[in-house]
Amino acid sequence: MQIFCIDFSRLPDCCDSYESYIARIRDGLKEDLRQAYPQYVLDLERPVWDLLSDVFSATGERFVFILDEWDAIFHMSFVTEKAIIPGRWCVP
Length: 92
Hints:
The chain has 92 residues and is α+β, with helices and mostly antiparallel strands. Helix content is 38%, strand content 13%.
């Protein structure tokens, strides 16, 4: 079993948008996968969920995600209804 810890209160340098915030989380997960499974060649340009699926298919190993400070994003100034996912999702 592989455990991944994500601290949602940690921001990248000069984070001023939802996109850069999510990119940091996504890129961090990809790097964690690369380090945890060095025996596999992972195409880090692919979506993280595809990489997780590939690793699971190859190893059968399960993943546990610890989501720390999961509500931190709701207190960040750059998060607005339109910033979350423009055109696809809005807070009612």
